[in-house]
Each structure stands twice: as C-alpha cells, then as structure tokens.
Amino acid sequence: MSNEPVEIKTHYSAAELAGLKLPDLPGSERGVSKCAQRESWACRRKTKGKGVEYAIASLPKSAQQALQKRQADALLANLPVADVAQRPLPSELKKARREQQLNLTLVSVDELSDAQRAAADARMALVCEVFNIQRVLKSKKRAAVYVAEAAKNRTLPELLQQLVDHANARSSADRVVSDRTLLRWCDKYESTDSPSERLRRLAPQVRQKDMRTPWWLGEFLAVYRRPSKPALVESYREFVKALPVNEVPPSIDAVRRMLKKLPPKMLYVGRHSGAALKAKLPFVRRDWSLLTPGDVLVGDGHGMKCKVINPETGQPMVIEVTLGLDCSSRLAMGWSTALSENVIAVSDMIRHVASKYPPPLIYYSDNGAGETGKVLDAPLTGILPRLGIHHETGIPGNPQGRGLIERAWGTITIPLAKKYPTYQGKDADRDTLRLVNRDIRRAQTVQRNAGEGMTVNLPHVPSLAEFVADLDAAINEYNQRPHSSLPKVNGVHMSPKAYYQAHRRAEDVMLDEMELRDLFRPTFTRKAMRGEVKLWNNVYFSEELMEVDGQEVQVGVDIHDGSAVSIRNMDGKFICMAEFDGNKRAGFQVPAQWFQLPLSCPACVKVSA
Length: 609
Description:
About 40% of the residues lie in helices and about 15% in strands. It folds into 4 domains: about 1-105, Winged helix-like DNA-binding domain superfamily/Winged helix DNA-binding domain (Arc Repressor Mutant, subunit A, Orthogonal Bundle), CATH 1.10.10; about 110-205, no CATH class; about 290-420 and about 460-505, Nucleotidyltransferase, domain 5, CATH 3.30.420; about 520-609, no CATH class. Helix 5 (about 115-135) packs across helix 6. The protein is of the alpha+beta class and about 600 residues long. It contains 23 helices and 20 strands. Strand 18 and strand 19 form a beta hairpin. The radius of gyration is 39 Å and the shape is elongated. A 6-stranded antiparallel sheet has the order 15-18-19-20-17-16, with no helix packed on it.
C-alpha cells in the first residue's frame, strides 16, 4: 500500500486524457484536441508551460464517471493519511471547487431538459427574426439592436414577445435580451448546419456538479462500508478520531453531500454482501414460457413460521415443508413435510410428484445437503437417475435464481402460518406471541407433572394431521387460483392447474403402482408384534407380518395417505402393505337391517326393550 497522497485534479491536458484511455474519448492527443474543439469543452491556460487544460465537467458523461471511479479507487488504495503539507489547503480547495462549479459545459441533446429545449427553440426563433430584419437594415448588428430595443419596449409581435421571456432563462420578472446576446446566439446558430447541434449550442448552459474526489473520501469509505452497517454519524466520529491532530476534517454535512453524489452501487459494496448485495444490483429475468409443463421441476425447503405438534414427542416444533413447483405452469406438483430439511423430505416430495404427474425432465434445486444426497443422485440407486430425471443445482448464495419457488412461500405457506396463533414471522405481534408461548409453557409443565395415562392438549398448537390437511387445502387452492404470470383467457389469468392441463405433453407416461411402491418413502423402525406395527398412535395390520413377528422392520409412510404403510425388513426386502386398523371389527355382530329401520318402528322398540 502506497503512502503517497493521491493527486486530485479538476483539469487535464489533452495528452493526459489520451493517456488515461477513458471511454468515449480518442486515444491520441490530437484526437482529444479535435473532440474538445468540436464539443466546446471548457478550458483554461496551463499553470506551467504552454497549452490548455480541459475541465472534468466538460468531458462526456461516461468519461467523467470512469475518471471519478479511478480517483475513488486510488483513494481507497491509499488509506494512510499523507503528510498535511502535501495536501491542498482548505482555502485552495474552496477556490478550486468554486472554479469547478462556474465551469459551464454543453450537454448532449439527450440530456437536455424540457425547459432547456423550450429556451433553445425560442432563441432560434429570435435569431431568425434578426436575420429577417438584416435583409432590410443590411447589417446584422443593427438588426440585433433593433430587435433588442423592440423587446425591451415590448413592441414585438405578441408571439415573439412571449419567446423573449422563454429565451432569457432567468427568473426575474423584467426579462429582456441585449443586442450582444442576440449576436452571440446568431454566431452559434451560423457555426453549424446540424439542427441537433444548433439545439445543443443554443440551449441554456447549466452549472455542473463538483466532480472532484476529495482526499478524505477513501478513508471515510473504509470506515463506512462495513458489514455491520454503521450509521453515518458513528462512521464520521470514528473517521475523525483516526485523523492526525493537525489535520482539518471535513464537516459531516460535507460528507453527507459527497455521499449523495456517489453512485449507489459504491455505497452498497461493503455494507452488503452475498444475496443481500445481489438483491440491490441488476438481475436477469428468466423466461419460463419457452418451456413445456413438465420440463423443469424446481424444489426447495421452507421452515414454517409457526409451530406444530411433533407426533413422536408430542411437543411443539417448527415443521419443514418441501415443495416442488413446475417452472412453466407454476403448478405445485408435490410436497412433503418433515422435522427438518433432509433428503427424506426431498425424496418423499419427488415420490409425491411422480404419483400424480409424469416425472419431470429436470429437477432444479439449491446446493443444500438435503438436495444433493446420494439417495437422490447416486448413479445406479439414486431416485432421480432411476426416474430418468436430470439434476441441476443453482449457484450457492444466489436464491434469486429460484425466485419462482421463493415467491411461492409468500403465496402459500406464509398466509397459512398466519392462520395459527403460533405464527412467529417478522411481522407477528410480539406481545400476542409472548402470551401464546406462555400458555404453551404452562401446558407443558402440567403435562410433565401429570400421571402416566393422562394426556394434556397443548393450546394454540395444531396437530400434524390438522396441519397436513390445511397445507393440502392451501396448495389445492393455489393451483386453482388465477396466476398473474400466466396468460389470460377471456380477460382472466389462467390458473396453474388449467395451464398445465392445456399445454402438457400428451406422450408423457405415468408410473404404475409397482413402480411407485418401489420408490423411496420416509421410513421409521418399529417392532412387529402379532401382525401389528404401531406408528404415531396408529395401528397397522397384516397377516404377513407374522413372518417377522418380534423383529424390527422398516415402516414406509406416505404423508399424504395414511390408509396403509409399506413394510420391509432391515435388509430392505419388501414384506407387505399393512392397512390402518386392518384387524379392527365390531364388538358385537349387528344386523344390517337395524340401521335401515326408522327409530319409531315397532321392531326398534322391541329390540331396545
């Protein structure tokens, strides 16, 4: 890191500008000089030697920005405070800043405001009037004097008199125009034949902002641009403390004005990073309409912003929801729930998709551990290769690449979580949530102190079955609701389900029951006893379970259908499908006709007697 101070200049010679290789500027000294003469750059005599130097504010806008960025980078690379004797004095800085502000430069036609265009048009009309009077008076100067006197006495035609007020771009009430000004406008009008160039030359010139980079900017940005996002006042205090005692610091107002002149991107870098920085920078919009429904399935996991009863422990906890969304139609094709984001939940979501729709061609996900496990991607045994699905992962730290499913969380799961008292999102009422958590803790204390056979219902917390039913209803409602990203039919946006059905490929083939049964399911280890296995307070029965009576087995669960579970031994060999309450029968044989007779009939009275 160099300790030499950075030289900050307001004017550069043609040779210096050519050597800087700035955008939109010629690369040779002669080319820069011709460009300066053609565009009427503001200039001054060199303090040493012959020739002129051109003001920064006169350069093209792209060249000014590039030069300003180079000065800022040079200051950032030169953070140690240089010797005060080598820095310009405050009086010199003030004088140079005043000189810079007084430099009036011509801007391009595209940069002209409406007021500048109106003034330029009015000036051209007055110039044409001078040329018309010149034909009679035979002198352009006398014609200019005549028009100026008539404008002063307000004896010009009404339209021309109004143009005088527009041409003189001043805010005073008695706006007039002098003969010298008219002659100057005539010279600018005659200096070129291009209409756009005449418009540019005759437009009122505006004072340019001070484009110099102060010596202290690099040191202040080093304090201000930090991930902790310190406030401007705190950064200013730390910046002043780091300066030498004999150094005169800028005022906080000067710092605030300078930061307003900087491009916002310069202030984002350092205070933001990763996805937060990308969220403030330009981005690419992906056009998913070029795909056919079923081409790409994007998947992701989301921790619900509410609490649900854990069926294993009976305690409230946050449930992880894994969702699969079709990129073309925005259809929620499949979902699953789990206690945490893992490969089991992702696999169950993919199995749910395959049970309702043809398998997609591509599965697009992030790089999380739950999305990249061998259960999914193993070459021979992985679920995705077995289904013929190609797996693509996004760039780490770039959730914007999967913006479709990130948006779906705010459409499906966040509104669902807000329906429960345990909603704990960032916009939840803190006091209400505190009272809800207090009631839950009290109920947990009662539950711990209760007897063994006693059950206590936790208040405000839904059971897993209730949550699954609500989630399924929310997803079905989303699939049938008009979506703003889909085309309109009869003035109404199509729903994801309608768009999928209308544009899906007819040749896609569904998996059969045997293939679906062979796919991965979330499994739990339980012991088979007398043809039964128990899971989450439910009993599943099959006669074939007697083959493994007293042994531990794998119970495969379909979170969407609890009517049956798949049973495999610990080696993974399929045994049977056990049905929910498959061995439950009525406690006493009841004739079917009892349920067919009205309650007031004699037979019912006799039986009841």
